[in-house]
Amino acid sequence: MRLVTKLELSEFKMKDGDFQLSIRSKHFEQGQAQNVPSPQMVPVHSAPLPTPPAQTDLQVSPAQKSSEVAAPVKGEQAADSAADKGKYIEVKSPIVGTFYRSPSPDKPVYIKVGDTIEIGSVVCIVEAMKLFNEIESEVAGKVVKVMVEDASPVEYDQVLFLVEPIG
């Protein structure tokens, strides 16, 4: 709630399964929402958020960074994204948090490009408020692209993986 006030947001909503959270500030309730500055979007490829000392087992070593992660290239990425969205299914983040490809730095990644996943397969972890949430796939198919770098912040409904459907 302090963050909503500090950023002068008029409204914040979050949904995780059956859990829903909605916060409205006084600006919104008093009909002053149009006078409140809109929050600035932070690019996902910015510097990762610092990991608290108690969570050091989730820090990622440079050796674990994968070349499979998409690198943002403005012209090519826009063309690829338009083509990708038509033939691939998107696996999206159901919550805001920090994206991790493996359960810990010394463990292998859950999935990589070329792997076939089933509905209900764990594909990654998103840490939110020091809770580590396993994200399960809602689709079956072959992973063709990892859209987020390991240990990066992700937003609600952000595309994490592109999957080519089976059949």
Describe this structure in words.
The strands form three sheets. Strands 3-10-8-5 form a four-stranded antiparallel sheet, with helices on one face. The chain has a four-stranded antiparallel sheet with strand order 7-6-4-9, with no helix packed on it. Strands 1-2 form a two-stranded antiparallel ribbon. Residues 28-48 and 53-79 have low confidence and may be disordered. The protein has three helices and ten strands; from the N terminus they run αββααββββββββ. It folds into two domains: 2-35, no CATH class; 53-165, OB fold (Dihydrolipoamide Acetyltransferase, E2P), CATH 2.40.50. With 167 residues, it is α+β, with helices and mostly antiparallel strands. The radius of gyration is 18 Å and the shape is globular.
Question: SSE string, helix = H, strand = E?
Answer: HEEHHEEEEEEEE
Report on the biggest sheet: 4 strands, antiparallel
Number of strands: 10
Gap between N and C termini? 46 Å
Question: What is the fold's blueprint, element by element?
Answer:
Blueprint: H1 2-6, E1 11-16, E2 19-24, H2 26-29, H3 74-87, E3 89-92, E4 97-100, E5 116-117, E6 122-128, E7 131-136, E8 141-146, E9 152-154, E10 159-165
Antiparallel strand pairs: 1-2, 3-10, 4-6, 4-9, 5-8, 6-7, 8-10
Describe the structure using short key phrases.
167 residues, alpha+beta, OB fold (Dihydrolipoamide Acetyltransferase, E2P), 2 domains, 4-stranded antiparallel sheet, 3 helices, globular
